[in-house]
Amino acid sequence: MPSAMRTNIGLSRIQNEDSAWYDADKGIFAVADGMGGHLAGEVASAMAIEAVRKMAEGAKRASFPQLRDAFAAANADILKHAETHAECSGMGTTLSVLWLSGDRAYLAHTGDSRIYRLRDGNLTQITRDHSLVEELVEAGIITKEEARSHPRRNIITRALGTEGDNQPDLILEDNHPGDCWLLCSDGLSGMVRDEAIAAEMKKGDPEEAADALIRLALAAGGLDNVTLILCREEAAAWKRG
Ligand code: CA
Predict the structure, then answer these.
(1) Global pTM value
(2) What is the whole-number distance in angstroms between the Cα of residue 8 and the centre of ligand 1?
(3) In this predicted model, what pLDDT tens digit does every residue of 88-107 receive, in sequence order?
């Protein structure tokens, strides 16, 4: 299936703590956004992606138990590494995984990286951010617009690498020919509005859209690392999985 992946350090960070990986043949796509001092965030996001890669290696038909196990393995690996490496203490990461299988899409998600689907020209955010501002929006305390510039918009309420709440949301969606999927870190969704993201995705070519989205994030200030994966389902791919 036509797919494209990009990651960019942005214009104000001194390292890129995002990680991403995909296998288009298997229909598995993953983005992680790490946090923690020094190189710790990078280590955490890479460990999360490695757990997904391992899952993909032994993958049978798409299923939620395999996704849940991969998230649990990533969480355990990160906690264990942090225990034995003082510089990594407190590190954590988001993880968003999309697994396309025939006419089904299996999503697993922790944190504020996002998965969107463009269908018939309409862009829908499928995942719900695990973030403080999302909770404030849902409680009616601030608007979605206020959330975009809220000083505490970087606080996430669920992450891998924590003893607390780290269970992924598991979401089953359908996957139609022509659907375009986007996974991204908040360096994209926080800098570029959904309407502008949709406009680029509608043009159709994942490679061109990926470049355009990175350009838009940088043009908007590039305040964070920007990572994204785009893929487009095609009728022929329905044999997969
Ligand atoms: Ca980020």
Answers:
(1) 0.95
(2) 11
(3) 999 999 999 999 999 999 99
